[in-house]
Structures are given as structure tokens and as C-alpha cells.
Amino acid sequence: MTLPLYQSGSHALDDGHPPSKTAHLGLWFERFYQGFTSNWNLETDAKAKALIEKMKKDWIKAIAKQETPSKHLQRHAEQRQQLAKGIKAHYRVFETTSPFVTGVGLSHPVENGMSWHPTLGAPYMSGAAVKGLLRAWVEEWMDFDSEQAREALVIRWFGTAKNNEHNASAGELLFFDLLPTDKVTLACEVMTPHMGGWYEKGGQVTLSKDNPDKISVNDYADKVPADWHSPVPIYFLVVRSGKFATLIGARTPEAQAEVGQAMEELAKALEWLGAGAKTATGFGRMEESAADAYEREQNQAKEAKAQKMAALTPAQQCLTEVQELMSADQAKKHPSYKDSRTGNPIFEEAKKLKELATGMSEAEKAEAKACLTAVFGYLGIDRNKAKAAKELWSSLN
């Protein structure tokens, strides 16, 4: 028999590991399982089943030891942050608080698959699935004053199919993939269903010919849920820990105001419902970490300040900076610059008013003098004696 490429010549890989750290781990997981027989079937012989199950477990553990491509994920996360700024979308990073798995229903020799991003080679959840998760939260758990209000929001955010009451329409929000921002930690998990016969064939139970009120002996032993059934371990691949990011944008200008609310509700859904598969058993829970929340709030504050400053004149911008520096120093338990006279950032910022004085209106000059009076008093500067302060004050006359 001709061996496949990865089992022959210079490509032989006895340990089942991908050929390099930059290999597409998803492609390897989906296409390079090594537990097939010589005729490309999975072993079904009862004597070999235990060995096959061990091969499955060992192969999943080998995959779990690999690393997803950190550099590509970081670069892609940066690109998505820039995209979010460009389209005025809300971008947020979530950290797993329980194992995360998605795509377990995909066909795979180890019985449970995994959804892998086609180009990044990392576990992910599609934007359509993110949309479905948020919709489930809105329809079942989000608070509303009335059911009419709930229905209106569902139609507005997610759209509707054509029916007797509505024409088909797209929702006003755009949903993007939930993707890792850096390498994730993979692991091998196990589930142990005890009554496979009941779950698979419970609806085919036959009754005894002698007594129609009783189940036949064979079916009673194999298909009835009971405590004599042995657990059957099923191993599957999960994300043990990692950070995932997504963004929500607006399809229309009118929907821009609701993007922030949609992201807040998605955060609640990820925390309480979970993403992906096996959420009923606690999988898929994610929360925004304190560090990420702080960074996001700082960035939002910077953007808000930049927008505010852009609407001011140069003189007003300078005065705002001076006032904020002094307020920040006053808020400290031990102020750094009080009574420090010259040579500190508050006075250095205030000196810029001298260059801006010629372009100031009378109202701005009056405001500047009031600000400088407070600054001189705080720093302990006598504007009639200190040369730099005297020149600064004179420029405003």
C-alpha cells in the first residue's frame, strides 16, 4: 500500500505532531488523524477498541500540546482594532473562565470536532454564532417593559425572515467572529455517558411477546436506563484558557447609538449562558478581565478627551490641560508640585499661553488670567517677582 505523504519519506512523523510551530493546527487536526487501519477505516473489532480509544486520547493530547500561532493572532487582533475604529464599532476582549469548545458536531474520527479559523489556524466562533448567542439572550433573558418592545428590538438588531407580518429584512447590527487575540491553551477533556443504548435506541424498545406490559429481556438489559451500564469515556479537544475578541458594528447611522448596548448584552450572555457547545455543563463562560476593562476605559477616556479638545481653540486647549494637571496633582494624597514654584509640568504648560496670547479673544484672556491666578496661588509663585510669571501675565494685557 502507498503511504500518505505525512507517513512516508522525509515527511514521516512518528509522534503525530505537526511539522513545525507555524503549521496550520486546524488543518492538522482535521486531516491528519493517524488512527486509521490500512484500508482507511476505523477499527471496529471488539478486541482492538480499547487500543483505538487510547490512540484517540493520545492523539488529542498530542494536538493539545501544540501552540496556536501567536504572532499572526496578535497582528490580526491589532488589525481588527483598527477596523473597529474605522467603522465606529465596539471592540472587546473576553477571557475564558471555563473550558471553551465549538464545532463538536463536526464529523471527525475522534467523534467530536472543533471549529478552526480557515486561515489563522486557531479555534474560533463565527460571527453568525455570536449573533445567535446574543439573539438567544435577548429573546429569553433581557429585561423589557413588554413583549412588543422585545420583538421590536429583535427585528431591529437581527432582522427577520419573510412571514405574514414582516417582509424579509437584515438587522441593523453587524457581528464579527469571536477570535483569539493571542495563543490559547488547549487540553483534552472527557465526557462519560453511562446509558448510550438508551440515548441511541430508547425509542426502539420492544415489548415482550408473553407479556405486552413488560419490555423484552434483551431490550431491558441493553436499552433501558439503569445503573448497571458502564460509562463510555469520550475524549475531545477544548480550549482550556485564552482571550477572545469580537466587535459589533452598525449597518446604518441610526443604529450607531445601540452598538454599545448590544456589546454590553453580549458580555452578559457570555458570562451567564456561555459560548459554543456544552454550555449546559458550564462550558464556554467568558468575562472581560479587569486589566482589559481598565485598558478599554482608558482608551475610551482618551478618545472622548481628543474629541472634546478638537472642538476647542488652541488657547482653550492649553487652559484645559493646565486645569487637568493641577486637578490631578491636588487629588493626590501628597501633591507633587504644590508650592514647587517653577520647573514643573503645570507651570511649563501654562507658559504656552504666552505664545498663544496674540490670537486670544478678550474673553479667553480673562479666562486665562483667572486660571493663572489659581496656578500661581497653588504653586506659591509671586507674579510680580518671578520673571517668567511676570512675563506670562504681561502677555495677556
Descriptive overview:
- The protein is of the alpha+beta class.
- Among the domains are: 68-192 and 233-299, Alpha-Beta Plaits (2-Layer Sandwich); 312-395.
- Helices cover 43% and strands 10% of the residues.
- It is built from 14 helices and nine strands.
- The chain has helices at 25-31, 46-64, 70-87, 127-140, 147-158, 196-201, 217-222, 259-272, 290-310, 314-330, 345-350, 352-356, 362-379, 387-395, and strands spanning 90-96, 159-160, 169-170, 173-175, 179-180, 185-191, 234-241, 243-250, 286-287.
- Strands 1, 4, 5, 8 and 9 form a five-stranded antiparallel beta sheet that branches. A two-stranded antiparallel sheet has the order 2-3.
- The N and C termini lie far apart (97 Å).
- The relative contact order is 0.11.
- Pfam families: RAMPs (PF03787).
- Residues 94-287 form the CRISPR type III-associated protein domain.
- This is CRISPR type III-associated protein domain-containing protein.
- Keywords: Antiviral defense.
Compact description:
The protein has helices at 25-31, 46-64, 70-87, 127-140, 147-158, 196-201, 217-222, 259-272, 290-310, 314-330, 345-350, 352-356, 362-379, 387-395, and strands at 90-96, 159-160, 169-170, 173-175, 179-180, 185-191, 234-241, 243-250, 286-287.
Structural class: alpha+beta
Tell me the number of strands.
9
Ends distance: 97 Å
- Overall pLDDT metric: 84
Number of helices: 14
Tell the overall outline: elongated
Share of helical residues: 40-55%
- Biggest beta sheet attributes: 5 strands, antiparallel
- What's the gyration radius in Å? 32 Å
Give the CATH architecture of the domain at 68-192 and 233-299: 2-Layer Sandwich
Strand content: 5-15%
Taken in chain order, the helices and strands follow as: HHHEHHEEEEEHHEEHEHHHHHH
Low-confidence stretches: 8-13
**CATH third-tier fold name of the domain at 68-192 and 233-299:** Alpha-Beta Plaits
In the CATH scheme, the class of the domain at 68-192 and 233-299 would be Alpha Beta
InterPro entries: CRISPR-assoc_prot_TM1791, RAMP_III_fam
Protein name: CRISPR type III-associated protein domain-containing protein
Domain CRISPR type III-associated protein: 94-287
Pfam families: RAMPs
